[in-house]
Amino acid sequence: MSESDFPPVPASFEFLIFSLKMQAEVRLGLLNVPGQTVEAPDLGAARHAIDTLAMLSEKTRGNLTIEEQRLIENSLTELRFRFVQVSAKAQKPAESKSEAAEAGPDVDKG
User: For residue 66, what are the CA distances in angstroms to 13, 24, 31, 74, 82?
Assistant: First the structure.
């Protein structure tokens, strides 16, 4: 079976939220895309997807069902938490490298 054998997913608010959430998760390096290797998280692209989701939440406020509102709020909460985690993890190796560079090759390791 090829991809063209499957019918397209119907357009829905939920599908849009899941699409934006997945984009952010891929950019954060939380999901592996078959055939692609992710060397480092793309925090700028992840932030853009999260900000787009936040803008969508703001623009649709008062027009969503309770389930839709929960979906978008829970997605934003989770993505923001994950963004902070990945950002902190990305800074740690950078800080370690800069400390090692500052110390130089003459550091006594014993």
Answer: 13, 23, 28, 12, 24
Q: Is 57 helix (H, G, I), strand (E, B) or coil?
A: helix
CB atoms within 10 A of CB 27: 22
Q: How far apart are CA 42 and CA 24, in angstroms?
A: 9
Bin 79: left if φ > 0, else alpha if -120 < ψ < 50, else beta: alpha
Q: How many CB atoms lie within 10 A of CB 20?
A: 22
What would the pLDDT profile of 3-22 be if each residue is shown by its tens digit?
A: 677 888 889 999 999 999 99
Going by pLDDT thresholds of 50, 70 and 90, the confidence category of residue 40 is confident
- Tally of CB atoms within 10 A around 76: 20
Residue 64 domain-assigned (yes or no): yes
Range of the domain at 70: 10-87
User: 28 exposed, middle or buried (CB, 10 Å; 0-12, 13-18, 19+)?
Assistant: buried
The answer to the question of residue 27 being in a domain is yes
